[in-house]
């Protein structure tokens, strides 16, 4: 029908796109052109569905910046032809990819919904069918002729989240993701309930801009008791390091050992941004609350506030690609640009 929303389904790889050969027990990717064969229920949706796929679907553990650019390019090239996009992706790195896409797609006014599954689509107990059907249904939602959802999201096990607020928390349960610092955008039950007050509202009427220049060379360092001086010095002396994300204790705390603080000062002196994020699943960095974070604030470490590690890494790569100066980097990072922090 003429008024039906047009949805593009993009398969990058992952468990959701696999079927089991019951004679051998082996898993293999199925042809998404035959999607209706496996999920005939899709014919009941009030939208038209087209499919495309990476030429060679990948395990999400192999995801990298090059594949992020490839995915963003597919959306860019099809943006004017479709009303919404559903990205099928392995769950292990889904929060990383979807966070990155949220920064890469500026002025987005259509839904980009990531989903996947814990069990293959042909498995008797699979979660793939519900995740896929509802993701498509969400991507097709309209309000006064425009898309109701206008941001990058992640749907899994009856809940829709802002993508750059998510973290994978479980490798076995169907409820694999959480968004501990931001409410769900929608919940699926007998009815699909959308939390419209939580949705991201575009601030600009400008056309979509796709940012493809992401900078690698970002180091993630997780604090732990027993970290020694020589190891730290070796890691932080890496000459090609462009950014450092520091996963700290609690509300942003680190050891107050002088050798540790001196190493961080040396990194900052090289013009490299250092971001402080909490290694806790929920909560926020508040530098200066305890003595163990006062020195970080003094030396110019940037507060990640309540951003996730996944979103922090993606945002650093994105901002470095925008060639933000070291003098203004903190201001840009500490300002929410895609709803990634409170």
What string gives the helices and strands in order?
Answer: EEEHEHEHEEHEEEEEEEEEEHEHEHEHH
Q: Might you state the CATH topology name of the largest domain? A: Rossmann fold
Q: How does the helix and strand content classify structurally? A: alpha/beta
- Strand order, largest beta sheet: 4-1-5-7-10-11-14-15
Describe the structure.
- By secondary structure, this protein is an alpha/beta fold.
- The protein folds into two domains: 5-210, L-asparaginase, N-terminal domain (Rossmann fold, 3-Layer(aba) Sandwich); 218-333, Rossmann fold (3-Layer(aba) Sandwich).
- 26% of the residues lie in helices and 22% in strands.
- The chain has helices at 35-38, 65-78, 94-104, 128-139, 229-236, 258-269, 291-299, 309-321, 329-333, and strands at 5-11, 18-20, 27-29, 47-53, 84-88, 105-106, 112-115, 142-143, 146-147, 152-156, 159-162, 167-168, 177-178, 186-188, 192-194, 209-210, 218-222, 243-248, 274-278, 302-303.
- The strands form six sheets. The chain has an eight-stranded mixed beta sheet, sandwiched between helices. Strands 17-18-19-20 form a four-stranded parallel beta sheet, sandwiched between helices.
- Helix 3 packs parallel to helix 8 (309-321).
């Amino acid at each position: 029908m003429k008024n039906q929303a047009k949805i593009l389904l993009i398969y990058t790889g992952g468990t959701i796109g696999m079927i089991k050969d019951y004679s051998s027990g082996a898993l293999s990717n199925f042809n998404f052109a035959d999607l209706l064969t496996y999920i005939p229920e899709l014919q009941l949706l009030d939208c038209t569905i087209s499919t495309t796929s990476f030429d060679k679907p990948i395990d999400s553990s192999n995801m990298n910046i090059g594949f992020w650019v490839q995915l963003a390019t597919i959306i860019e090239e099809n943006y004017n032809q479709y009303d919404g996009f559903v990205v099928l992706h392995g769950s292990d790195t889904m929060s990383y990819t979807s966070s990155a896409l949220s920064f890469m797609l500026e002025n987005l006014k259509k839904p980009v919904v990531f989903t996947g599954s814990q069990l293959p689509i042909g498995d008797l107990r699979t979660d793939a069918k519900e995740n896929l059907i509802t993701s498509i249904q969400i991507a097709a939602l309209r309000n006064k002729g425009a898309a109701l959802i206008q941001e990058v999201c992640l749907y899994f096990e009856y809940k829709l989240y802002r993508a750059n607020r998510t973290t994978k928390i479980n490798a076995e349960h169907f409820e694999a993701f959480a968004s501990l610092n931001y409410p769900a955008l929608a919940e699926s039950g007998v009815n699909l309930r959308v939390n419209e007050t939580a949705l991201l509202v575009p601030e600009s009427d400008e056309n979509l801009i796709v940012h493809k220049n992401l900078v690698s060379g970002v180091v993630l360092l997780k604090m732990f008791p027993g970290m020694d001086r020589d190891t730290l010095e070796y890691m932080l002396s890496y000459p090609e390091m462009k950014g450092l994300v520091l996963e700290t204790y609690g509300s942003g705390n680190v050891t107050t050992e002088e050798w540790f603080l001196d190493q961080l000062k040396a990194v900052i002196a090289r013009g490299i941004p250092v971001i402080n994020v909490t290694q806790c699943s929920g909560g926020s960095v508040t530098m200066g609350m305890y003595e163990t974070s006062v020195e970080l604030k003094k030396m110019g470490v940037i507060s990640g506030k309540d951003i996730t590690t996944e979103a922090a890494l993606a945002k650093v790569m994105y901002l470095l690609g925008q060639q933000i100066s070291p003098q203004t980097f903190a201001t840009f990072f500490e300002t929410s640009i895609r709803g990634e922090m409170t």
